Amino acid sequence: MKLSRRKFFQRVGAASAFTLAGVPASIVPAAGNGNGLVHIRPREYTGAFANPLKGFRPDLPSDGGSGEGLDNPLVTLVRHYIRWNQIENSAADGVEKIREFCNAKWAGAERQNRKIIPRVYLYWPEKMYWPADMNPGEYGSRKFLHRLDRFIAKLGQAWNRDPRVAYVETGIVGPCGEQWGPTPHFELRRVLGDAYRASFPDKLCLIRYPWQWLDYPFGVYWDSWGTHKDTSRMLEVLESPALADSWKTRVRGGEISYGFGEPPGENPDNTMAKSHHVDWIECLIRRGHWNHLGWVSNYDWRRPVAAAHGQRLQKAFGHRFVIEAVSYPARVEPGAAVEISFTIRNTGSSPFYYDWPVELSLLDESTRQPVWRETFASVDVRQWLPGDRWSQFADWNTALGRYTLDDRPARYQVPTASYPVWGRFCLPPALRRGRYILALAILDPAGMTPACRFAIENYFDGGRHPLGRIGIGRDPGTLELDARLFQDLASDTSIGYRLA
Description:
The chain is of the alpha/beta class. It contains 9 helices and 24 strands.
């Protein structure tokens, strides 16, 4: 007898729970077939770990980056400042020049499970990097606007389908691509906005000042993040009716600007050594739904206090998916359908912004490799949202020269929801009868390999999360897995993706 989706969830709700730390599993009879539904509650992994497309964001060596922080094991995002004339020095230069430059600079990123946030610029303080066939500073000319449109189209051809590119900072104008000095005039904003939107349908783009780009679906790189000078103004705009929900689909990044605007700390090490600075940073991450942050990422992560604070902020940044419960049948016949459900909460601060598939697999108990795997047909990880409207905030303390938190509770007024996921899969008739381990994973489309991990203790190196045993054409025997089989999530350095 086939169960409907509604009936399946009703059966799941009636099942008894067990953990995977040796407590016996309970089974509730499934309608019509005498088999049972296994109901599991994995334990949350309480530490921080590297997960793609979020967190601390150091810089590749460049005009704007020393390479500090790249050895931090939490890092999966890196920014790359690129001079325009490094990748196009004349109008005749093609897309291949961009690819050749990036291939040399980004070599090995896929093996480290790291992705790049490029920003192209024309001017660094005291230095010009305009193409040789253009006049420096001619932002208002028709020639420049035409060239800009064509150049961004080339960037799109090079980067839009490149799995190494995480997000794109639109940059180009002003010192360091900060989009001021000059402030983009209307026609320049139109060309920039239209060209990036058209050239990057598959990547999220970011701009510097959101109030200048209300007609475009861009995120923000706030490069004076958390400073006394800029925080009130930025939050007023981001929490305005036009942008209040934009964090759900537009990524937010930036950096703490040491030396400008009274930032939280004198330098990265000072920031990460002081709990009051980390308190403020976590509060603003939560309130603003922040995904990643740079410059502070240069801190010495080997120092014990800084390491503890880094763990705390890594858990707050971006997404953090905790599986609350999983249900599946204890036994399924070869060629039959297997139905599975699980519930998940995002305890981080922002969504996962790309549509990556979720995989169900059967693992060989000896090799821990999949003998069968398939992705859920209608699961969209972008919809697993965190909570909203962070209660706690801070006031500027003039005497101390820093923000101090108020006494409101440190929690979201709108708590994160529990998102139900359900899938039905047809097993191949030729699947060998036996006992297997049922596992979940989130795959990077670049190679369809496990890449984004759930924050649960059930983990095997390589990126899959073992849940419990399942019998294919036979009794599964002991359902629960010995927790001593699990491997440490944060210690796994094997995660990566593949280039075409």
